[in-house]
Amino acid sequence: MADTMRFRLLPESSPLGWTPYAWLVYLSFFLVYAYATNGPSAWILDGLAVAAFLVLYFRCFWVCGARLLPYVFGIVAIGLITSTRNPGASCFFIYAAAFLGEVGRPSVGARWMLVILAIIGVHTWAFNLPPTFWVPAAVISVLVGGSNIHFCEMRRKDRALIKEHERAEQFAKMAERERIARDMHDLLGHTLSVIVLKSELASKLADRDPKRAAAEIRDVENISRNALAEVRRAIHGYRGERLLDELMSARKTLAAASVDLTEDIAPCALGADEDRALALGLREAVTNVVRHSQASQCRISLKAEHGAVRLTVEDDGVGGELVEGAGLAGMRVRLAEVDGVVERDGQRGTRLILRVPERPAAAPEPVVLS
Q1: 59, part of any domain
Q2: Is residue 196 part of a domain?
Q3: CA torsion angle 164 168 174 179 (round to 10)
C-alpha cells in the first residue's frame, strides 16, 4: 500500500531511466544569467519560473499525442515571459522542442516545430532581443527537436515490430496447438477405434472360439504397442507415416470390421510431405468407414492424373451430407499445407477424394508406391 502511494516524478515504465534528471543541466544557462544580470528581487520571479517549468517538464513524460501540446506550449510561455530580461530563457524553447517527437508522426512534430520557430522569430522582432537569445533558441531547438522527432519515430516502429512479432508468435502457438490436436486425432483416433473394434470382437468370440479371441487380443496388444511408439515419435518430432504402410493398415482394419476391400493402386511419385498428408488422410477416411458408414464394401484407388495424385476412398454405407468433424476439417488443413484439396460426396455411400501435386520424376528422393 505504501508503494502505491509513493509519489513519482517519472512513470515507472519509462525507458529513459535517470536521463531526464541529467537533461536539467541545461537550466544552468538560465540560472547563470539570472544570477549575473538580475538583482535579488528578480531571483524570486526566476525561481517561480523554474518551479513552474519543472512541473510542466515532468508532466510531459506522463502524456503523449495531442495531450502533450498544452504542456509544451506552457514551457514556451515561460520562455517568452522570462526572455526579455534573461537571454538564458532560450533553454525553455529547446526543452519544448525536445518533446515534439512524442506529439505524433514526424510530419506533425515538424509542423509544431515550425510554429515554435515562428514564435521565436516574432518575439525576437517585437522585443529586439539579442542574438544570445534567438540563435540558441532557434538553432539548438531545431537540432534537438529534429533528432528527437527522428528517434521517437524509430521507437514507435520498434514497438510496432515488437507487437507484430508477439502477434506472430501467438499465431504460431495457436497453429502449433491445432497441429498437435490434428496429429493426436490422427494417431490415436484411428488406433483406439481399431482397439475397440477388436476388443468387441474378442468379447463375442470368447465363448465359441477362444483361440481366435486370443488372437484378436494379441492384435490389440500389438496395435497398442505400435500406437505407443507412434506417440513417442510424434513427441520427439520424428513422425514417419507413409502411404504404403497406411494401405497395409487399412486392409487389416477393414478386414477386422468385416468390410470387403477392393484396391486399384497405380505407381505414383510422391514427395515426403505429400506422402505423409495422403497417409494421414487415408487413415482418417478408413476410420470414418469403420466408425460411421455402416458399409459392407470399400474401394481404395490411387492414380496419377494431370500432374496430380488422386487418392479415392469410397464405400456403400449410409452416406449423407453430414457436418464435418475435427478429423475431416484437419484433413483439409493438412492437404492445403501441401497445395492439396479434399472433395466429399455423400449421395451414394461416401466418396472421399484427396488430390496432391505429383512430384516430378527427377525430384530428389521420391517415394514410389507400387
Answers
A1: yes
A2: no
A3: 170
- Model confidence pLDDT, tens digit, residues 91-118: 999 999 999 988 888 888 889 999 999 9
Name every residue whose Cβ is closer than 8 Å to that of residue 363 and which is 6 or more positions away in sequence: 269, 271
Same domain? For 137 and 257 the reply is: no
How much is the average pLDDT of 46-52? 87
Residue carrying the nine cell digits 515488437: 162
Quote the cell numbers at residue 170.
Answer: 501467438
pTM score: 0.49
Among 290, 286, 287, smallest CA distance to 300 is for: 286
Per residue in 6-38, is it b (16+ CB within 10 Å) or e — as a string? Answer: eeeeeeeeeeeeeeeeeeeebbebbbebbeeee
Residue 254 lies in a domain: yes
Count of CB atoms situated within 10 Å of the CB of 189: 19
Residue where a domain terminates, one of 134, 168, 202: 168
Retrieve residue 253's grid coordinates: 482394419
**Which three three-digit cell numbers place residue 203?**
468379447
Query: CA quadruple 4, 7, 11, 12: dihedral positive or negative?
Result: negative
Domain-embedded: residue 214: no
Domain residues for 41?
19-168
Q: If you average pLDDT over every residue of the chain, what do you get?
A: 81
Identify the helix (H) or strand (E) that includes residue 302. strand 297-305
List pLDDT tens digits, range 208-245. Answer: 888 787 887 888 777 777 777 676 666 655 444 578 88
CA–CA distance, 280 with 185 (Å, rounded to integer): 10
Alpha helix positions (H), the chain = 19-22, 27-37, 40-59, 69-83, 90-98, 106-127, 131-184, 190-205, 210-235, 243-256, 272-288, 326-337
